Amino acid sequence: MTINGEKAAALSSAVLVFFYTYFLGALYVGGDQEHYRSVYEVSGSSGFFDSYLYYRGRIQSDEIGHFLITWFASQIFEKDLFNAFANSILAFFSVRLLSKWGAHTLLALAISVFGYYHLAMYVSAERLKYASTFFVIGAFYFQRNRLTYLAFLISIITHLQYLVMIAAVFSGRFSAIFLDAYKFLKVRKSDIAIIMLLLLFLILIPIVFYDHIVYKIKAYYQVFGLTEYFRISLFFFGALFYSKEWVKVLATFSVLFLMVGLVGGDRVNLFGYFLFLFFALQVRKGFNFGVIATFIYYFVGWIEYVSWVVDCGINRPC
């Protein structure tokens, strides 16, 4: 098998991320990881149903995907080793996906290894990390519909927050389908099938997880000021600047603006950043002001994050 530059960069990122996150993961013992470590330890020494009851009580989550990964992995692997391995998979497919979007392989590697949001998923935001891994795999194999939908479904039941990202992605997809229908007065049968399937999918998931969704919205909802919209607005206007598909950009980001009003910017900005990258990486392979400026900004955040973990065992100052 021939390994091209993109695959070599992806493999390099996987190796780098495996080793440095194995080291950092062992140091990160505060915050949510305190609960995740407790659940992992109990799962490794308890039966399936006892572990699930403990998981629900400690994590307060109905997202079965994360529990299943935790339980099965705890039967075989030490936690930090498994997390480092999972991180390497996310890094590998992140490089592949960013390259597919148009990024230069070195830039894709840099974002995946030294990006602030990637680091947060690697060492602290565990549920988001596993959900992101399945989403990235699904997005990479986007044209292979069955695999894509399965991966997206797993990402949602692992972390319901990904319902927002998937709704945003397919809002953009729907806008393109409807725009073509308006221009050419023709809709393919495959597009109709996709629309019907996804509408059913996006209706059923909120029904099944209704109580959990309501609980989360109540936990995070408050009257948010205009400052909450600042960062997502920057990503939105950046995407508009670099893309000619303004209808697609508008449809995609409209979902994110709606969610900022419900749960605040902190839980949505990550999605805005990666949607911005989707549009901006297509210009000069990502070597443009918007991508480079955001990378530098988040690389500084990466350095700060690492120093906090090393000094304090958590992602904030001691």
Q: With helices defined by DSSP (H or I, 4 residues minimum), what is the helix count? A: 16
Note poorly predicted spans: none
* Number of separate domains: 2
**Can you count the beta strands?**
0
- Share of residues in strands: under 5%
The outline comes out as globular
Ends apart, CA distance between termini: 49 Å
- The level of helicity is over 70%
Helix/strand-derived class?
mainly alpha
Cα-based radius of gyration, to the nearest Å: 20 Å
String of helices and strands: HHHHHHHHHHHHHHHH
Mind describing the biggest β-sheet? none
Mean pLDDT: 86
Observed structural traits:
318 residues; 16 helices; mainly alpha; 0% strand
Structure summarized in a few sentences:
By secondary structure, this protein is mainly α.
Description:
The protein has 318 residues and is mainly α. The chain has two domains: 7-160 and 311-318, no CATH class; 161-282, no CATH class. Helix content is 79%, strand content 0%. The chain contains 16 helices and no strands. Helix 7 packs across helix 8 (126-140). The longest helix is centred in the last third of the chain and has 24 residues, at 289-312. The chain is globular, with a radius of gyration of 20 Å. The chain starts with a helix and ends in a 6-residue tail after the last helix. The mean pLDDT is 86.
